[in-house]
Design goal:
356 residues, alpha+beta, Beta-Lactamase, Helix Hairpins, Heat Shock Protein 90, 3 domains, 5-stranded mixed sheet, 42% helix, 24% strand, elongated, binds adenosine-5'-triphosphate, binds magnesium ion
């Protein structure tokens, strides 16, 4: 009596649905874990067929293995996919009496919906990692021949003595070569695990250094740059060369957005400390009063190769590379934009360095 009770308790303790079935699909017994299954409203399980009580069907389920188990006297398994998106693995185990005849079948149902989702995600990220590695390899291999193509073409151009037609063709070669080089460079940054260690970095210094590099390029387009750097900004642990790159990308995008602005062209750069529940971050914001971004494009701008610029101008990798860098630092890039009014991009890097 005690052992019967123990078995019943064991049966109930299992968190997956378990049923004992006879050969005619009648439920002999089941535990109380069937609530999430689609056929739960069909009354007393012990007077019910499994297909009705468990799955809500009027007839035997399409892939049912019960007959097969009785025939083959061996366990069986099949997967059930419901329209609701749920997936179940169903296992059948024959139970034998002393004469080695099957007198019932244990059915064990396991909800594997989440597990399948995670497996798919893992596979996807594995695939992405493999593609990333391959892209880095290809980019690396292409870098040297591309340098030769551009260099040699430039040398022929410089030497002169060729007719205008050929000079135009050469110029095309150089321009396309430079574009390829830019894509290669971006792919390398994107996939390279930059080996340089993170160090204490001031975002203000990043802004100042980047401006010293490209201010001339931007001012050439009659753009007015205004700065508001927080003097009390704490340092963050970061790879400063990568942060330089993010800032350069944001500034060049702002410059491009201002190109057709007939009025006063302005870029405003600010830094500051932002306190939030999840912790403090240092932020650098680049705001322009350029063309802005259409709402239907705002979700796409971080996608690799999304660009609204002509082929010779943009590769569409700048923001995806920048977001990759921000995320590698535990941070983000946020964007606010109004078409015709301008855009504001904010790089936020968490201050989690213990010394800060
Ligand atoms: N400040 C901005 N104002 C308006 N549109 C922007 C701005 N920054 C980015 N965009 C839009 O997002 C797109 C993607 O930007 P991203 O920097 O990734 O690529 P790109 O600038 O086109 O090319 P690349 O940076 O590789 O030369 C741009 O083509 C542009 O349409
Ligand atoms: Mg860009």
């Amino acid at each position: 009596m005690k052992s019967k009770l123990e078995w019943e308790e064991t049966f109930k303790a299992l968190t997956d649905p378990i049923l004992l079935l006879d050969r005619h699909h009648n439920i002999i017994r089941c535990n109380n874990r069937l609530d999430d299954l689609p056929g739960k409203n069909y009354g007393d399980p012990q007077k019910s067929k499994c297909y009705r009580y468990v799955w809500g069907h009027e007839n035997k389920c399409e892939n049912c293995k019960l007959d097969e188990v009785y025939e083959n006297q061996a366990p069986a398994y099949h997967r059930v996919q419901l329209e609701s998106g749920k997936t179940y693995d169903v296992y059948y185990y024959p139970v034998f009496n002393v004469n080695q005849e099957i007198y019932s079948v244990i059915q064990h149902i396991k909800d594997v919906t989440e597990q399948i989702k995670i497996e798919a995600q893992l596979m996807q990220s594995g695939k992405l990692a493999a593609i990333g590695e391959m892209a880095a390899g290809v980019a690396h291999e292409l870098n040297s021949p591309m340098t030769v193509i551009i260099g040699n073409s430039q040398m022929i151009m410089r030497d002169g003595g060729i007719d205008q037609n050929n000079a135009d063709l050469l110029e095309d070669i150089v321009n396309c070569g430079l574009r390829c080089k830019k894509i290669i460079q971006n792919l390398l940054t994107f996939s390279r695990q930059d080996q340089r260690p993170m160090s204490r970095t001031s975002l203000n210094k990043v802004v100042e250094r980047v401006l010293s590099l490209i201010q001339y390029q931007i001012n050439r387009n009659n753009v007015d740059i205004e700065l508001d750097l927080d003097p009390k900004l704490p340092d963050v642990l970061a790879n400063e060369h990568q942060l330089d790159q993010v800032l350069i990308n944001l500034l060049l995008n702002a410059r491009d957005a201002l190109e057709n602005n007939p009025g006063e062209k302005k870029i405003f750069i600010s830094t500051g400390l932002r306190r939030a529940e999840e912790g403090a971050s240092v932020v650098a914001t680049v705001t322009d009063n350029g063309e802005g971004i259409l709402p239907e494009n705002i979700m796409k701008i971080f996608n690799p190769f999304f660009t609204s610029k002509e082929a010779t101008r943009g590769t569409g990798l700048g923001l995806s590379v920048s977001l990759g860098i921000a995320e590698a630092h535990g941070g983000t890039i946020e964007v606010v934009s109004k078409p015709g009014r301008g855009s504001s991009f904010t790089l936020a890097i968490p201050v989690d360095c213990p010394e800060n």
